[in-house]
Amino acid sequence: MTNQKKKVFMWSVVSMFLFCLLTVLITLTPLAEHGQNSNQFGDFGMWSGLAMTVVSYAGAIVMYLIGGPFFKVVYTIVVSLGIFINGSLLAVFFAVHLFMEIFTPVTIVAAAISACLIVVNFICIFAANKSERSPLPVS
Questions:
Q1: Environment class of 72 (CB within 10 Å of its CB; exposed 0-12, middle 13-18, buried 19+)
Q2: Total count of domains within the chain
Q3: CB 90 within 8 A of CB 83
Q4: pLDDT value of residue 21
Q5: CA distance 72 to 32
Q6: Parent domain of 59
Q7: Cα distance between residue 86 and residue 80, in whole Å
Q8: Which residues contact 80 (CB under 8 A, 6 or more apart)?
Q9: Nearest-5° angle of CA 19, CA 21, CA 22?
């Protein structure tokens, strides 16, 4: 495994961990009490969400590690989807705070993790699409 692939793997695992943590935290927020289909902490919906997160990340990581330009594009699209999801979550957290006046420490931590995920996913994209250049020979 090349150094670039190791970096992408490491950042992808960090992103997967943060997204799983975010999934659990969202079930602890007051938002989980609204709506009949919302996930509660420890229920089947939370665990299936965690399983789908791990499977999705694992699939994207394996495809990237297999190699090839097509898989790099697929990986970039999947990570970009994560940026979109977390950007949407930040907007929802902000709107809930603004309009519903729900402002709890768990919601603040979830919003912070969502912002961190956006940064980590951008790092993943740049790490995956960085061209592997050999250093210039020194004469």
A1: middle
A2: 1
A3: no
A4: 94
A5: 35
A6: 3-128
A7: 10
A8: 121, 125
A9: 60
CA dihedral 125, 128, 130, 132 (to 10 degrees): 180
Determine contact, residues 45/35, Cβ cutoff 8 Å.
no
Q: And the tokens for 99? A: 């309009």
Long-range interactions of 89-93: CB distance < 8 A, separation 24+: 89/22, 89/26, 89/114, 90/114, 90/115, 90/118
pLDDT digits (tens, 9 = 90+) for 32-70: 676 666 677 878 888 998 999 999 999 989 988 888 888
**Per the domain annotation, does 136 fall within a domain?**
no
In a domain, 96, yes or no: yes
